[in-house]
Design goal:
By secondary structure, the chain is α+β, with helices and mostly antiparallel strands. It is about 45% helix and about 5% strand. The strands form four sheets. It has a four-stranded mixed β-sheet, covered by helices on one side. A hairpin with a 2-residue loop joins strand 3 and strand 4. The longest helix is centred in the N-terminal third of the chain and has 38 residues. The radius of gyration is 35 Å and the shape is flat. It starts with a helix and ends in a 7-residue tail after the last helix.
Length: about 625
């Protein structure tokens, strides 16, 4: 019996032991589950899929995981529980959807997608639709179609990167990848890029120095007045905001032909009440760029070291060493209204961030009276004088070596513009006749080339009439340089287009000049000479009827039609001229072509495809005596 009792006791004890072990195991499992739930309260960003992106050999793209995790986010990133950096003590039963933040890519990183690398785009990007609405955001998940040779480029614009067509995105990204040094083909591309610059400065309040430099670099490429004026206002406000150093501000101002009063106010403010004379470089820039100080009919003076050297002694003499400025009592408020439709600054932030007071130096212009007087004397000194003819220096040499030195003082940097009559008198031609004959023109051209100068416009075009009153420009030329047919035809076409569409601004002229490289094989030196044409082509001295009569006399109707095709194709990349019936009407009128005749697309494609070779053959005859 006693053994039976002992056996029962052992069985009960062992059963109790196993039950206790089972309970301990269940308790540990529950604790483990609780620990995992608590760890889940740290809301870290989900890992993004970067398998579709490749890494650049030089700079890692911002779309690589290690850079994406350290990217700079917009100041409008959600705060509190939705922030990927927040830690909550409350356990979450269900994981929340990850917020897709707006990320910034400056100059030190790049975006890599498909087969293109966009280095330093200075723009926002996101891997999908960002939680912050931003029209400039480059969504790397959207399809992109990069333009190919011969593709018809879209003439329509877009309001945001997301609303662009795949081809438009490809054009935009290609422009960004080219460091934004080419004129954009549509206003929407620089406008959308500017949206991001505005957000970075107005909302994030970061990279102000970078943004002002990038905006200023874009300025000369814009041909749309509204966008150009807005960008100048943005640069002015930003310059006031960061109080740009005097030397940087002056360097920036010297590159502009017109400067807002606000920016000039900053430039002058450093010298007001200092009892120090206004430096001659500042005074020269002020008079050259301030609209209020310009008098009616005054010529536009380009910035050059020679012009400044001429102005300085006159200024210091008439202003008794330099103009002394006092700070005015009145101020002007410099404010900037963003074009980005998603940015709205309200209340105190608007007063704090969007407006800065600058002294108003232009309320009373009497303080500039000595400066205005010195500028008037300076403009008189710039007027070319009749050359003194020293026949002893000229007739002794068969190449008339001295006539350039007579027309242009040694060391001068200003463009040498004169008339055929002045050159003709130096070369002892009869300038009383109404026109030059071919022998006289050839003698002038040969004489100039011996001395290392080219004369514009081209005096060697057969059948073109030149009068002694015509203005000519001397451009430096290496002696013995052969002026190719490509260059001669391109130069004439550029001259003809400027007259046809009445180009009077450099912002239109320069893209046209660059566009000619798509049709003619031009060297760097030839591009430099084409660029120099703006001096006499803006504005043109001949009307379109002048060229029309000349071309109608020398070319057949079919040849003139092909010239029209070329001009239309050259202008096709500029929205204001592309598919513009008025431009077609003008060309038809002066080339004596039927206006109702449609321009077949295949003809335009042919012109573009053969790079102007057919036009070279057509117009080659005009330069047979050159």
């Amino acid at each position: 019996m006693i053994y039976l009792v002992i056996g029962l006791f052992v069985v009960v004890a062992v059963g109790a032991f196993f039950r206790q072990q089972s309970k301990s195991a269940e308790s540990e499992n529950k604790n483990s589950e609780t620990a995992q739930t608590d760890t889940g309260s740290l809301d870290l960003p989900d890992e993004e899929d970067f398998s579709s992106f490749s890494t650049s050999a030089s700079v890692k793209p911002v779309t690589s995981p290690e850079l994406a995790s350290g990217a700079t986010y917009s100041a409008h990133a959600p705060a509190g529980e939705e922030s990927p950096y927040s830690v909550s003590s409350e356990p979450k039963q269900k994981p929340q959807a990850q917020v897709n933040l707006l990320r910034w890519c400056g100059r030190s990183s790049n975006i890599q997608l498909d087969n293109i690398t966009v280095p330093g785009p200075v723009a926002y990007w996101a891997n999908g639709e960002a939680s912050t609405q931003e029209p400039s955001c480059i969504d790397v998940t959207l399809p992109v179609e990069f333009p190919k040779q011969g593709d018809e480029l879209p003439v329509d614009g877009a309001e945001s990167y997301a609303s662009m067509t795949p081809l438009q995105r490809g054009i935009y990204l290609t422009w960004l990848a080219g460091a934004r040094i080419q004129p954009p083909i549509h206003m929407c591309y620089p406008s959308i890029w500017l949206y991001g610059i505005e957000r970075r400065t107005l909302v994030d309040k970061l990279d102000l120095g970078l943004c002002i430099n990038e905006a200023f670099r874009l300025l000369p490429l814009l041909r749309w007045d509204v966008l150009r004026e807005n960008l100048i206002n943005f640069i002015t406000w930003l310059a006031v905001k960061i109080w740009l150093p005097d030397e940087d501000l002056l360097a920036m101002c010297r590159r502009l032909n017109k400067i807002p009063e606000g920016m000039l106010g900053i430039l002058l403010n450093s010298y007001a009440n200092s009892m120090l004379p206004l430096p001659s470089a500042v005074a020269f820039t002020l008079m050259r760029t301030c609209e209020k100080l310009h008098r009616e009919g005054e010529p536009q003076v380009p910035d050059s070291s020679e012009a400044l050297a001429t102005f300085t002694p006159i200024y210091k003499d008439l202003c008794k060493g330099g103009l002394i400025l006092t700070k005015p009592q009145k101020t002007i408020k410099i404010a900037y209204t963003p074009t980005n439709p998603t940015i709205e600054i309200k209340g105190k932030d608007k007063d704090k961030n969007d407006a800065v007071d600058v002294p108003d130096f232009f309320d009373d212009l009497t303080i500039f009276k000595p400066l205005l007087d010195s500028w008037e004397v300076f403009l008189t000194a710039l007027k070319p004088e009749e050359p003194e003819i020293n026949l002893a220096n000229i007739t002794e040499r068969p190449d008339f070596e001295g006539f350039i030195a007579t027309l242009r003082p040694e060391g001068s940097e200003l463009p040498l513009i004169t008339t055929l009559e002045k050159v003709g008198k130096l070369m002892q031609f009869d300038t009383k006749t109404p026109k030059l004959n071919g022998k006289e023109r050839k003698a002038i051209v040969d004489t100039a080339q011996v001395e290392g100068w080219q004369i514009l416009p081209d005096l060697g075009i057969s059948g073109r009439e030149y009068t002694w009153d015509d203005k000519i420009l001397f451009v430096e030329l290496v002696p013995g340089t052969n002026l190719t047919q490509n260059y001669r035809v391109a130069s004439f076409i550029l001259e003809f287009i400027c007259a046809s569409i009445a180009v009077d601004e450099e912002r239109v002229f320069e893209p046209l000049r660059q566009r000619l490289n798509d049709f003619f094989t031009l060297s760097d030196d030839e591009n430099i000479r084409l660029e120099a044409q703006r001096t006499i082509n803006l504005p043109t001295q001949y009307g379109p009827d002048y060229y029309g009569e000349f071309l109608c006399a020398w070319l057949s109707e079919d040849e003139r039609r092909k010239v029209k095709y070329l001009v239309l194709e050259i202008l096709s990349f500029m929205p204001e001229f592309a598919n513009n019936p008025e431009v077609n009407s003008i060309l038809c009128e002066f080339l004596k072509l039927r206006e109702d005749e449609e321009t077949p697309a295949e003809e335009l494609a042919k012109v573009s495809g053969d790079r102007g070779n057919e036009i070279l053959k057509i117009m080659g005859m005009l330069f047979k005596n050159a």
